[in-house]
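RECORD TYPE: inverse folding
INPUT: C-alpha cells
STRUCTURE:
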C-alpha cells in the first residue's frame, strides 16, 4: 500500500475514532497530495518519494509555525500546531541522529576526497540524496561545514 492509500485509510480510522486533530491533519496531507497529483506535468501519479518530500515539508512548516506562535506568546496555537506535527511525523521514516549523520558525511568526504569549503556543494548533493527523508538538510549542512572547515 502506497503512502497516499495509507493516508486515505487512516482518515477513515480517524473518523471512526472521532480523533479531530488527526482527522484534520490527515485531510490536509491528502489535500496537498491531490494538489501534487493534479499539478501540470504530474501525470496524475504520486510516488512514495514525492509523498515523503511533501510530508517533510509539511512537518517543517508546522514546526516553524509553532516556533512563531511560541515567540508571540500564543502557546495554545503552538500546542495545536505541534500536535499536528506529531501526526505528520508519524509517517516519516526514523530520523538519523547527529552521530549517524556525521558518520555518513565523513564517509562521503572520504569518497569524494573533499578537503575544503569549495567542495561543500559536491558533498551536500551526495549527502542529501543518501539521507533524503532521514535527516534535515540544515543539520546535514551544519555538519558538512564543520567537517570541511
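DESIGNED SEQUENCE:
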Amino acid at each position: 500500500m502506497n503512502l497516499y492509500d495509507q493516508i486515505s485509510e487512516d482518515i477513515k480510522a480517524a473518523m471512526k475514532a472521532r480523533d479531530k486533530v488527526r482527522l484534520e491533519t490527515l485531510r490536509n496531507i491528502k489535500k496537498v497530495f491531490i494538489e501534487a497529483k493534479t499539478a501540470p506535468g504530474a501525470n496524475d501519479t504520486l510516488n512514495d518519494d514525492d509523498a515523503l518530500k511533501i510530508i517533510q515539508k509539511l512537518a517543517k512548516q508546522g514546526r516553524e509555525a509553532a516556533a512563531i506562535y511560541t515567540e508571540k506568546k500564543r502557546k495554545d496555537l503552538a500546542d495545536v500546531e505541534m500536535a499536528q506535527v506529531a501526526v505528520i511525523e508519524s509517517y516519516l521514516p526514523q530520523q538519523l541522529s547527529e552521530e549517524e549523520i556525521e558518520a555518513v558525511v565523513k564517509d562521503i568526504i572520504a569518497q569524494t576526497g573533499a578537503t575544503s569549503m569549495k567542495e561543500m556543494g559536491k558533498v551536500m548533493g551526495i549527502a542529501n540524496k543518501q539521507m533524503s527523508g532521514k535527516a534535515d538538510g540544515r543539520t546535514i549542512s551544519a555538519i558538512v561545514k564543520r567537517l570541511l572547515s
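NOTES: The first helix runs from residue 3 to 17.
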